Amino acid sequence: MAKINFMKRTLIAHSPDADDIFMYYAIKFGWVDMKNTLFDNIAKDIQTLNEDALNGVYDIVAISFALYPHIKEEYAPLRTAVSFGEGYGPKLIKKKGVKLKRNFKVALSGKHTTNAMLFRIAYPDARVTYMNFLEIEQAVLDGNVDAGVLIHESILTYDNALEVEREMWDIWQELAGDELPLPLGGMAIRRSLPLNKAIEYEATLTKAVQVARDHKDRLSKMLIERDLVRIDAPTLDKYLELYANDDSITLSDIQYKAIDKLFELGHKHGFYDSQVKVEDFMIPTEYKELRNS
Fold it and tell me: pTM value?
């Protein structure tokens, strides 16, 4: 009797911004696959994904790096599909000509986002309100808040009536005290998955980001033609070089150092109960070699 192979359906939860779409869609378009696995995806704003990770909703989920110490027992961080700022990042914006008071009202994209933690460290007296990142620019324009931190594509496309009060990159440099890239977002995988499967998932997602980078122009064109991104071709090209670049394929030594610095700052300022070293929580890929030796 012939052996029947059952396909496992695996859901990847990511944000709707262009870098996450770009880094996943080599799988969606069938350019990358995994044996006996059918991938599907769902897109939600980053804070909703952070909350879903806190509640253990998905096996594989995009998160803000600042969230990770809160979920370290349930999830392992993946080495791939990471977004860092390097001389750039989220922007604190306001209406042109407005002078912000010490206790200005600000809109942030979510309590557990990296930019929110850095902002709250730098501006302890600001009155914070949280909203979907897509609503922040309009909230500032309408005067519902005095300022807002823009993330994702909006850092390139915000209204001419607005101006940058401060770059989150500058805040990061002042707090980190070193020339480190700014850790923004990555992926996490549930620890309860079989280790050999977790290793396969990470390898597949890494290949997807590599293939996306190798075929950037073709993939970008397909995303635009199918209305899968919110920006035009020139903006998409610029945006991907910021947040879905060659440094997104797999974590480097300096990126590990930057994540650890972020966690150190969070612990120092009371956001975490303990100090976390990210490499202590990664998937032990050496298991595959040991298992096959």
Answer: 0.92
- Residue 2 placed within a domain: no
Structure tokens at 51: 């909350």
Q: Could you tell me if 217 and 153 lie in one domain?
A: no
Of 6, 12, 82, give the one whose Cα is nearest residue 41: 12
Q: Helix or strand or coil: residue 174?
A: helix
Residue the block writes with tokens 């350019």: 31
Q: In the 3-class helix/strand/coil scheme, how is 25-60 assigned residue by residue?
A: HHHHCCCCCECCEEEEEEECCHHHHHHHHHCCCCCE
Low-confidence stretches of the chain (pLDDT < 70) are 1-6, 287-293
Range of the domain at 148: 91-176
CATH number of residue 122's parent domain: 3.40.190.10
Closest CA to 27 of 187, 232, 134: 187
105 three-state secondary structure: strand
CA distance 287 to 53: 25
Q: Which amino acid is at 129?
A: T
CA-derived radius of gyration, the chain: 19
- Are the CB atoms for 93 and 109 separated by under 8 Å? no
Query: How do residues 32-46 score in pLDDT, each as one tens digit?
Result: 999 999 999 999 999
Pairwise CA distance, residues 290 & 293, whole Å = 5
Q: How many residues does the chain have?
A: 293
98 shares its domain with 140? yes
Mean pLDDT (the chain, rounded): 94
pLDDT digits (tens, 9 = 90+) for 182-220: 999 999 999 999 999 999 999 999 999 999 999 999 999
**Residue 1 within any structural domain of the chain:** no
Number of domains comprising the chain: 2
Q: Which of 112, 152, 267, 269 is catalytic?
A: 152
User: What does the longest C-alpha to C-alpha distance in the chain come to?
Assistant: 77
Which one of 176, 207, 232 terminates a domain?
Answer: 176
152 is known as an active-site residue = yes
Q: Which of 156, 176, 196 is the last residue of a domain?
A: 176
